[in-house]
């Protein structure tokens, strides 16, 4: 929209082609009025909004703009934790700029982004990351919202539980069934009862419904994995068809691993399958090199869990420091064993 003013008043989305099972990556507010949203199938988005203009992604442009914005952030603090190309946490607690006012810093940053990059930005100002994230969504587009320390308790009490970090549709529905619709409702639960219902996440719920979040802003985020995946226009009918696609995926993975210089940090290999019924499974094993035979074994193991046509294939590596006792590719596969999980994805 910035680069093509003729799009300003039109519903616009960035995504894949509808005839190739493309999905929407993002869309403007005009499109959202029709019910279009990110992660929606492009074909479904066009049903809801027949006049939707669907543009292909331009990642190099997005990365360049992201670098511009991050450079502006770092003029105000070194404590910048990027979350994605267009989102980040900033800790400005000790910033000397704007008389130490986080509100004024946010206003100035947003003005600079508009002036130098040519796009709008929204901001949330709050005492911790959880609340700042919620506040950043409060006055979109092109606005900001402040939650002051003395306002935290009342603000969070009225917050719907579905707004809590980590609470998806399934967990929100379970909380609602248990009578917890707002954080005020959730505060009536003892921590032990939340643990019983939700495991370790119960501890997190206990803190978040009280506005507690002790996570610090982490300027350097360690990469934990590298992967590639492909969704196919036509379902792959059997295991043999999947195996034929595997070499190309491994080649793409090798290029990506080299680009991020992750070769020395590979700890595990994994394969991911999404079947035609949207069930998915991931199988992984210890390994330090991109071994084709190992990936083939992982893929075969995963396919046997579904034994049906395949919609998506992916391969990847988990990264981390080596302990000295890891396996090396397919040679030790049987000795090391396979680890995996299966689950239901949301379409």
**What class would the helix/strand composition place it in?**
alpha+beta
What name does CATH use for the topology of the largest domain?
Answer: Dna Ligase, domain 1
Please tell me the CATH architecture of the largest domain by its name. 2-Layer Sandwich
Average pLDDT score: 88
CATH homology superfamily of the largest domain? DNA polymerase, Y-family, little finger domain
Can you write the helix and strand succession as a string? Answer: EEHHEHEEHEHEHHHHHEHEEHEHE
Strand percentage lies at 15-25%
Q: Which oligomeric form is depicted?
A: single chain
Number of helices: 13
In whole angstroms, the N-to-C terminal distance is: 28 Å
Major sheet details: 5 strands, antiparallel
Q: How many structural domains?
A: 4
**Side-by-side strand order of the widest sheet:** 8-11-9-10-12
The CATH first-level class of the largest domain comes to: Alpha Beta
Layout of strands and helices, then pairs:
Elements: E1 12-15, E2 24-27, H1 29-32, H2 42-48, E3 53-55, H3 59-73, E4 80-84, E5 87-90, H4 102-116, E6 123-125, H5 129-136, E7 144-146, H6 152-157, H7 169-177, H8 183-186, H9 191-198, H10 201-208, E8 225-236, H11 239-259, E9 266-275, E10 279-286, H12 292-304, E11 310-319, H13 333-336, E12 339-344
């Amino acid at each position: 929209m910035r680069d093509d003013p003729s799009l300003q008043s039109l519903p616009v989305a960035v995504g894949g082609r509808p005839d190739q099972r493309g999905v929407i990556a993002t869309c403007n507010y005009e499109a959202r009025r029709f019910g279009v949203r990110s992660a929606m199938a492009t074909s479904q988005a066009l049903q809801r909004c027949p006049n939707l203009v669907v543009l292909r992604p331009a990642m190099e442009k997005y990365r360049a703009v992201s670098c511009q914005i991050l450079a502006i952030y770092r003029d105000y603090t070194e404590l910048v934790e990027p979350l994605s190309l267009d989102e980040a946490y900033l800790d400005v607690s000790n910033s000397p700029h704007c008389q130490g006012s986080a509100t004024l810093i946010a206003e100035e940053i947003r003005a600079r982004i508009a002036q130098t990059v040519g796009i709008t930005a929204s901001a949330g100002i709050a005492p911790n990351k959880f609340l700042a994230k919620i506040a950043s969504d409060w006055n979109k587009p092109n606005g900001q919202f402040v939650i002051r320390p003395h306002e935290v308790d009342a603000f969070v009490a009225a917050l719907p539980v579905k707004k809590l970090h980590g609470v998806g549709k399934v967990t929100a529905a379970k909380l609602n069934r248990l009578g917890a619709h707002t954080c005020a409702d959730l505060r009536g639960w003892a921590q032990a009862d939340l643990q019983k219902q939700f495991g370790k996440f119960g501890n997190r719920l206990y803190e978040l419904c009280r506005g507690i979040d002790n996570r610090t802003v982490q300027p350097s985020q360690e990469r934990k994995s590298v992967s590639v995946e492909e969704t196919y226009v036509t379902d792959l009918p059997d295991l043999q068809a999947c195996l034929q696609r595997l070499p190309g995926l491994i080649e793409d993975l090798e290029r990506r691993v080299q680009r991020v210089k992750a070769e020395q940090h590979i700890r595990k290999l994994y394969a991911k399958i999404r079947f035609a019924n949207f069930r998915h499974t991931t199988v992984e094993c210890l390994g330090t090199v991109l071994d084709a035979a190992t990936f083939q074994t992982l893929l075969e193991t995963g396919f046997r869990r579904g034994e049906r046509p395949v919609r998506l294939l992916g391969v990847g590596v988990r990264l981390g420091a080596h302990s000295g006792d890891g396996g090396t590719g397919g040679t030790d596969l049987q000795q090391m064993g396979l680890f995996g999980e299966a689950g239901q994805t949301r379409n």
